[in-house]
């Protein structure tokens, strides 16, 4: 009887140790981004592909971030910047200011890539 009890207890122990475990996948999200910089972006209309169109407001602007070890980039720190998440693949980017097209280009975006355009 002692052997039988030991076998049953050992069986329960092994089953409990082999229970399925749910794992969470943790990692970096590889967002594909487009950064637009200009002296004046507020009021501009940005079109990406055929599904995204936005008129830029003051609240849409991305605040300037100081570079590595606090180094500043004098050229970029005074520009208005907007950062947009885009789909991978070839995208047509159009920027209009006062009904005039100032940027009209097609760009290819790889997964996790960030591309930048300086809008005149």
TrEMBL record:
Top-level lineage group: Bacteria
Protein name: Lipoprotein
Organism whose genome encodes this protein: Halioglobus japonicus
Lineage: Bacteria, Pseudomonadati, Pseudomonadota, Gammaproteobacteria, Cellvibrionales
């Amino acid at each position: 009887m002692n052997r039988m009890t030991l076998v049953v207890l050992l069986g329960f122990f092994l089953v409990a140790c082999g229970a399925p475990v749910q794992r969470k996948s943790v990692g970096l999200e590889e967002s594909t981004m487009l950064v637009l910089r200009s002296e004046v972006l507020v009021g501009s209309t940005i079109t990406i592909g055929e599904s995204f169109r936005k008129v830029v407001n003051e609240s849409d602007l991305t605040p300037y971030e100081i570079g590595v070890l606090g180094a500043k980039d004098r050229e970029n720190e005074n520009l208005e910047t907007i950062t947009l998440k885009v789909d991978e693949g070839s995208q047509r980017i159009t920027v209009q200011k006062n009904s005039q097209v100032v940027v009209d280009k097609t760009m290819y975006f790889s997964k996790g890539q960030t591309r930048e355009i300086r809008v005149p």
